[in-house]
Amino acid sequence: MTVALDAVPRIRRGVKCTYDQIREAHVVLFPEGVLVLNETAASVVALCDGVRSIGDIAVALADEYAGVEPGDVAELVARMVERRVVDVHG
Amino acid sequence: MAEAPFGLLAELTHRCPLQCGYCSNPLELVRRDAELSTEDWRRVFDQARALGALQIHLSGGEPLLRPDLPELVAHANSLGCYVNLVTSGVGLSRDRLRSLASLGVDHVQLSLQDATRAGNDRIAGIKAFDRKVEAASHVLDEGLPLTVNTVLHRQNLDNVAGIIAMAERMGAERLELANTQYYGWALRNRAVLLPTREQLAAADPVVAAAQERLRGRMEIVYVIADYHEAHPKPCMYGWGARQLTVAPNGDVLPCPAATVISSLEIENVRDSSLHDIWHHSPSFNAFRGFEWMKDPCRSCPRKEVDFGGCRCQAFQLTGDAAATDPVCSLSPDRSTVDLILETEMAPAELPVMAMRKMR
Ligand code: SF4
Ligand code: SF4
Predict the structure, then answer these.
(1) Which GO molecular function annotation, any one, does this entry have (chain B) (predicted)?
(2) What is the CATH superfamily name and number for domain B7-228?
(3) Which residues in chain B touch residue A20, judged by CB atoms under 8 angstroms apart?
(4) Does ipTM top 0.90?
């Protein structure tokens, strides 16, 4: 699937984002399982607040990570949609 | 060292108001006086979290029968774990659910035995259907995600469309339709439970169409009827790889059905820590990786996908837990499964289901 740049992703109900001290990694917890996220993915997921669009998220991350393209964010969000971690509107 | 587990299946009790004849609990049910105490369970949760577990599935039997459930939910939540309540729905009143939700239940998994009241209650052995429907509405009102679980078998497979419709009506986000796996109680009742080829062939397109129609609304997970397949279903993500189970008496199991492997030496949380058991016990190391495999699995490319199938099934049907899962068409024991299908799928007279009960 592809996600449009003006789409607005939101963390699904029942999904928890947290930091795991044991693995020293960001994780998402959801009914089906656990996803261990890398730094970038964790930052993207944290901004899936149901308000910001993919484009907004890319802008917000640009300060922190040089060279983040909206296309990269869209791709990551698409993967999170497939894993039922986020859903998208718009 | 083995990688850390992601989940703990905590079977808080084997007591249950329902009597499903395919129950995944062992035939030899743990009695109330042998159950772990609240303190024990708190320690088990602490140890599981320290080991890496992030999900705690509170299951049973019926976990609502443990008076300390609220305390255990709160404790699991305080550790930062995702708390999944696995229930029959019997005893899940609005107040009870509200309080459990406020203490930290993140998700509810509700069993449904069949599409209709009559069918459901016949399989469950008690009047449970209306209470399940009510429980589902409480879960929705509380804003918690709901998974409905149905075990499929000869008695309800023809109603799969109705089961899907019922799960939709209940407001489930996910529906797990799992064909019966034959260990313990289900093995004992296999001749009543084994579906026919025709039933499976009729159900497949119904499920596939519903998966398509409900995409994005209700996810449907379908677990195959492995006796009828050419390849086994994969064993979790491999033995001792992702999850551990603690039985009501503190026995620590690499998989929920592992007690059927009578040759396996099982450790207990009263004697050892989860850390030691996970990393060093013979039972958890018995079938990790690929070294234990024999041919045909050892030289088969599919071993990365199915891990040689189910160890419990291999043991039950061949007497050797390290054998290739006999449902595999490459197994030298496949004829055992074919014979079962031949004789049990078309019995002259359907035997009576043995209802699950404590002795
Ligand atoms: S050994 Fe069998 S029952 Fe146990 S987890 Fe693996 S597939 Fe399932
Ligand atoms: S031979 Fe073993 S690994 Fe290959 S498909 Fe059969 S069970 Fe799986």
Answers:
(1) iron ion binding
(2) Aldolase class I (3.20.20.70)
(3) 52, 54, 80
(4) no
